[in-house]
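go over whats below:
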Amino acid sequence: MEIKITVDFSIPPHFKFIKKLENSRHFLSPPNFSITKIWTKDTSIPQFLLNDKKVEISDYEKIQQFLSLIKFRYIPNRVLPIDIIKKEHQALRDVIIRRVSNKKPTGTDEVFKEIEKISKIMTSQVSSNLKETITNLDNIRLATPSSLSEMIFAFGYKLTENGFETDDYMHGSGIQSRLMFDTLYLIDKDYFQRFGWTQAAIWAIEEPESSMHSDMEARIALFLHKISNSEDNRLQIFTTSHSEILLQYSDKGFLIKKEKSSKSYTFDIDKILEETSRLGVSSWTHPLLQFPLTPLLLVEGKFDKIYFDKAIELINPNILSKIKILYLENITTARTGKTGGVQELVRYLKENSKVIENRHITPVIVVLDWDSRTHEETLKGLNIPSLKVFRWNETNSNPNLGEEFKGLERFYTDRIFDEVYKKKSSIVFKTNNKYTVKPSDIDEFKKLSSEIIEKELQKQDLKYSEQFISEIITEIKENI
């Protein structure tokens, strides 16, 4: 009998090995490698494999040194969040002391003033996060020492509402949980600044949504998504959950079913949401109410989605992780069989106007083709504040393309048409610098051009579309 676990590592450029661990780095040969650990009943120590090859005992230390650079946190369900914060007071104290020492204060009074100042800076983001949930919150601060007699101290938070200050433990479990996650992130993120030592962290969390109301649950889900997908990402999060909201903000999911023999099934998030709602594990959420704290960008079809994915990545890549781009077919086919088209899209939005009205925090942003003026007026006529309607402006289209191009393709550059011509010259014609595609070939043209766009869209290809897409990005920024 043996227990065998393999972990694949992909080391980012900002992951550092100090000089004393150079042998470990050379042995592992980053950036990509796998480590396997095997436990057997008859051996006293586990066995290591590197890239499926046996590691000699003399090299075990090199692997252990690398693993020591990654901090692992296990946060069980039903734990008291305040207890975890109290247990971390030494780490918080280390963070403050390190920052104070960098300032090099002179004199006792200056030291305590610096401690108070730094604690305010450290908790400013925690305070900002909580203000999104506690409408009356004025301030949050760390209880820090003000004299030598208080130097042996345990941290706690002081929350001020309507001018009245209370201790952290006097608040509900949802607020305490939010404080706990913010505090742990504050500590782990600061550790990353230590040259050469802790370089990354892995959190294993059991049901982070426990004892939370829906709004707090959504904010926790978005917070965990953001911190694990930041630009200089050094944090990976694994969580068990029954929450459909947490699933929506996850990158990957595993659905575990208990049968005669336990089996694990891996699905994409949409399939897991469908399956867990069918099984009664989680609630069914209307597609237009998913990602409640994230703007939804709804386009007419899958080719439009491909273009927007690539164009936004070129214009403002940071925005991509803060929106969800959908099209009618991938949110309705399983239940209604609808496959797209502007008429179906408008009908769907009209039928679900009451649902859209329930998106109080972030909007549904709809993008219509240039020839959909009547449909634009229809949707704007619904007078739903959370429904934002954008229509492509034909006056900004490629002058070498005519009105026979009814959709997004009228804003493609000449280069994209030339690339399609190279792939299949029989469907693209050019006369007097004007491009045409036969009506019978338009579907094939859309497919071939989307393949080119998905593979190699370039900044120059946004000549006729950048202004319009930038306007949409501005709308998104105002709602995140």
